[in-house]
């Protein structure tokens, strides 16, 4: 069959339209602006692209000067996963904190306020919320990104989040379909497998997605997970059974299907990003997210050419690619027509939510601190979704209330990560890394000296060295205050135990207020 020039132009434009690439820098590079003129319809933003709200607004204006209806996407879950406030920590608690409060109106209002701030900066597509049911407490990548372990709770808060975010004119992208909560492997590193029967999947993992679809979620993100009960051969992102038969057919979803990052090892190391992208579009995905680790024009060219070549060889139906591009353009039209939102008055809704999410054990006999403590941050390796550049903890917040607060970062043999004292305002004396939990605990005790200890942990139940370090500290210093900033699965202990249900900056602030009696 002869391919005419106009057909080739349309095919190439459609192939560009379905891509959602990232880039480096805080201004748009020339190659990206050129691609927008050629048909690229979406751009993904990450922490590396953002210095301030004003700079972000200027960046999105630069993109729209080239293409007025461009989709500007971001991974802004609030809580531990923030790009808007990547260098300071989020002003909003994450899903787990909102689920702990279990007030759907609060969740709706938090999402609405977050959406207002994104819209004010020119962002119109948010890769959020996470609708994963955190049924596996050992999950290394979801955890506090989930509203909780109860499907009904996760479903009602997912719907509220979608409604709140989209009321601000920002499209929600509910993730990670068909549910990433029962995994023990991080798909950034390898391909997870979920071995449960279809009835469990239907009742547990799919319930929040049904709620999101009913709430009108404009986009859904696929997961790079293998679910043999649904498809024994292909991960969800590449599975027609899961994306077309289940999501489109059985669940009746008609919005945009976006893939998780194709450079993640679950796909890149098994299929490669070019072949993976072709298979994803063929399976029913409409937009290819790539750019977390690959962010250049060469990647865009390779993926565009792979899609065009697949159509020409007959591996990918031209109608399927055209349908995917049509759905991308339809979402762009929705965002362009969404009612503009005013920033509104300043609000402390994030801090209010963080305060309400606290679970405090031992408060009855507790006397607030009046002297500066030593904050020992027992720090695990940060997962890639959260990133290691976002500070977390209580040290900076305590230093604002109790000047002179000192802190150190400690980690065991499983490795280090981002310290809890990397914001200005604290005296940071590195505690060191490596060794057994007992050795870590002894280092913390030596660093603290005679000062009152505030021990900060994150998912203590997942890190044996961390639990052993805390045992060592509490044995020697039973007056130690413990702050758990991950999933509070381990028993509460210490003279005072505070579970924040997340490590956002406002969660640290709320905990510091309790410790200092503020």
Q: What do you see in this structure?
A:
It contains 18 helices and 16 strands. It is an alpha/beta fold. Strands 9, 10, 11, 12, 13, 14, 15 and 16 form an 8-stranded mixed beta sheet that branches. It has a 6-stranded parallel beta sheet with strand order 2-3-4-5-6-7, sandwiched between helices. A two-stranded parallel sheet has the order 1-8. Helix 6 links the parallel strand 4 (125-126) and strand 5. Helix 5 (104-120) runs parallel beside helix 6 and helix 11 (273-283) packs across helix 12. It is globular, with a radius of gyration of 23 Å.
Arithmetic mean of pLDDT: 92
The helix count comes to 18
Shape: globular
- Uncertain regions spanning at least 5 consecutive residues: 1-5, 415-429
Helix content: 40-55%
Number of strands: 16
Global Rg: 23 Å
Instruction: Supply the helix-strand structural class.
Output: alpha/beta
Oligomeric state of this protein: single chain
User: What profile does the largest beta sheet have?
Assistant: 8 strands, mixed
Give the DSSP E fraction (strand runs of 2 or more residues). 5-15%
Termini gap: 75 Å
Write the layout of secondary structure elements.
Layout: H1 5-17, E1 19-20, H2 30-38, E2 42-45, H3 53-66, E3 71-74, H4 95-101, H5 104-120, E4 125-126, H6 151-167, E5 171-177, H7 198-205, H8 207-215, E6 219-222, H9 240-250, E7 256-258, H10 265-268, H11 273-283, E8 288-289, H12 297-313, H13 318-337, H14 349-357, E9 359-361, E10 374-378, H15 395-401, E11 406-411, E12 427-428, E13 432-433, H16 437-448, E14 453-457, H17 464-476, E15 481-484, E16 496-499, H18 505-516
Parallel strand pairs: 1-8, 2-3, 3-4, 4-5, 5-6, 6-7, 10-11, 10-14, 11-12, 11-13, 14-15, 15-16
Antiparallel strand pairs: 9-16
Helix pairs in contact: 1-12, 1-13, 4-14, 5-6, 6-8, 11-12, 14-18, 15-18, 16-17
């Amino acid at each position: 069959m002869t391919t005419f020039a106009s057909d080739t132009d349309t095919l190439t434009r459609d192939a560009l339209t379905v891509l959602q690439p990232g880039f480096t820098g805080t201004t748009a590079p020339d190659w990206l602006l050129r691609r927008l003129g050629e048909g690229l319809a979406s751009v993904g933003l990450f922490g590396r692209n953002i210095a301030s709200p004003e700079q972000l607004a200027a960046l999105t204006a630069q993109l729209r000067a080239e293409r007025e209806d461009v989709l500007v996407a971001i991974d802004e879950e609030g809580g531990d996963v923030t790009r808007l406030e990547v260098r300071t920590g989020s002003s909003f608690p994450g899903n787990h904190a909102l689920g702990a409060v279990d007030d759907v109106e609060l969740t709706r209002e938090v999402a609405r306020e977050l959406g207002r701030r994104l819209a004010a900066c020119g962002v119109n597509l948010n890769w959020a919320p996470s609708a994963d049911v955190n049924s596996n407490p050992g999950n290394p990548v979801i955890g506090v990104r989930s509203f909780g372990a109860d499907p009904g709770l996760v479903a009602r808060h997912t719907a509220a989040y979608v409604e709140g975010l989209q009321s601000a004119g920002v499209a929600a992208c509910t993730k990670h379909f068909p549910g990433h909560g029962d995994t023990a492997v991080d798909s950034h590193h390898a391909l997870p497998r979920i071995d449960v029967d279809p009835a469990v999947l239907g009742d547990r993992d799919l319930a929040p997605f049904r709620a999101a679809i009913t709430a009108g979620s404009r986009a859904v993100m696929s997961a790079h997970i293998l679910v043999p009960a649904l498809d024994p051969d292909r991960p969800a992102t590449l599975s027609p059974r899961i994306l077309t038969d289940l999501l489109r057919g059985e669940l009746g979803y008609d919005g945009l299907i976006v893939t998780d990052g194709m450079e993640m090892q679950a796909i890149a190391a098994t299929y490669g990003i070019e072949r993976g992208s072709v298979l994803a579009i063929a399976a029913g995905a409409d937009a290819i997210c790539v750019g977390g680790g690959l962010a250049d024009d060469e990647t865009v060219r390779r993926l565009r050419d792979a899609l065009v070549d697949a159509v020409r060889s007959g591996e990918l139906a031209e109608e399927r690619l055209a349908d995917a591009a049509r759905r991308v353009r339809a979402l762009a039209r929705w965002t362009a027509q969404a009612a503009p939102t005013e920033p509104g008055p300043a609000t402390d809704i994030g801090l209010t939510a963080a305060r309400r999410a606290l679970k405090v054990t031992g408060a009855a006999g507790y006397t607030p601190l009046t002297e500066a403590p030593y904050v020992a941050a027992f720090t695990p390796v940060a997962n890639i979704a959260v990133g290691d550049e976002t500070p977390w903890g209580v040290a900076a917040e305590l230093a604002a209330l109790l000047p002179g607060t000192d802190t150190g970062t400690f980690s065991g043999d499983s490795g280090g990560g981002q310290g809890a004292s990397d914001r200005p305002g604290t005296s940071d004396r590195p505690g060191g890394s490596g060794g057994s939990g007992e050795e870590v605990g002894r280092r913390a005790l030596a660093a603290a000296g005679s000062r009152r200890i505030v021990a900060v942990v994150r998912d203590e139940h997942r890190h044996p060295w961390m639990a052993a370090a805390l045992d060592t500290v509490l044995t020697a210093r039973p007056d130690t205050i413990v702050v758990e900033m991950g999933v509070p699965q381990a028993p509460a202990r210490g003279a005072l135990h505070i579970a924040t249900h997340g490590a956002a900056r406002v969660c640290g602030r709320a905990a510091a207020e309790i410790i200092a009696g503020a």
